[in-house]
Write a sequence for this structure.
């Protein structure tokens, strides 16, 4: 990867965003309320919040797959009004084409954009090497493990040179050891490519280990509780999980999240009419 590709673009602002879901039948559900935070260019910013609080909803709004009810999202000062090639989302579910080899999967996007096949394949091959899959580039997705599939997906996202990478719980569902290894791998990749990243997780350890800054969310109606800078040096390794800085940040994050997680746990089921009382 040449220096020219190291970018300091991708500054994202989520400004006073609100999102209400619902229908005439179910009634309104205020999921996000006055949510504001920034993803500084070149940073790895992690959104951390209890399950169901609206993290994926925020990703959808930043990706432009959905629009806020209130507020605004900008990327490098330009309002997000729909999906664009400047943002790539990597989801938990694999989106690799099962009928293509890993090399073809990663080279697919550039070839579609008109890049000559040899050039696209050479770049795809270099990226697969970066994610530790060089020896597997002729395999099909079904012939590799779940963790390898996620790495191939990250390679496929990086080849598109997005300004902003959005990763929505990409390591969810992997076993504990694979997840830890994926985090280390991902950090190496981030240090190398420096693509501005918004990473979503509900795992505190994963969040602190990866983040330059943590954006901690409340439970619904969800807003930003606080933003915590993570001053752990890079490159990082798992030894840092025992450092005092790490311990202090974890304590702070746990304090903030515990009560919100309880709210999520205790939430009563929403009745079919969304809890709206009839007028007798
Ligand atoms: N398209 C939609 N229509 C109606 N409600 C929605 C829609 N998308 C999300 N919601 C509601 O928004 C809330 C937040 O969902 P979201 O998936 O964003 O949370 P999350 O924090 O990503 O959850 P998890 O950590 O469990 O993946 C939920 O109550 C969900 O039912």
């Amino acid at each position: 990867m040449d220096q020219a590709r190291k970018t300091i673009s991708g500054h994202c602002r989520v400004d006073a965003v609100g999102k209400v879901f619902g229908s005439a039948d179910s009634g309104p559900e205020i999921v996000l309320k006055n949510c504001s935070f920034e993803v500084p260019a070149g940073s790895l910013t992690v959104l951390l919040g209890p399950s169901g609080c609206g993290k994926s909803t925020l990703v959808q709004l930043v990706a432009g797959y959905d629009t806020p009810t209130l507020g605004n999202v900008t990327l490098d000062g330009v309002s997000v009004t729909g999906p664009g090639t400047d943002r790539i989302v990597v989801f938990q579910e694999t989106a690799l084409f099962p009928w293509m080899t890993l090399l073809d999967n990663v080279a697919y996007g550039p070839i579609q954009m008109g890049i000559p096949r040899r050039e696209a394949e050479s770049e795809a091959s270099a990226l697969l090497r970066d994610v530790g899959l060089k020896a597997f580039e002729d395999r099909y997705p079904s012939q590799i493990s779940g963790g390898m599939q996620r790495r191939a997906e990250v390679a496929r996202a990086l080849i598109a040179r997005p300004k902003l990478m959005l990763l929505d719980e990409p390591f969810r569902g992997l076993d504990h050891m694979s997840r830890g290894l994926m985090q280390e791998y991902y950090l190496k990749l981030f240090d190398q490519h420096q693509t501005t990243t918004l990473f979503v997780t509900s795992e505190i350890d994963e969040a602190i280990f990866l983040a330059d800054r943590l954006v901690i969310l409340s439970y619904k109606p969800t807003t930003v509780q606080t933003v915590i800078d993570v001053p752990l040096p890079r490159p990082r390794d798992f030894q840092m999980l025992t450092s005092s800085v790490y311990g202090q940040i974890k304590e702070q994050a746990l304090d903030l999240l515990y009560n919100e997680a309880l709210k999520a746990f205790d939430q009563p089921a929403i009745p079919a009419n969304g809890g709206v009382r009839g007028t007798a």
Summary: The chain has a mean pLDDT of 88. The two ends are 68 Å apart (CA to CA). The chain has seven helices and ten strands. The helical segments are 55-63, 102-112, 117-130, 146-158, 176-193, 204-210, 244-266.
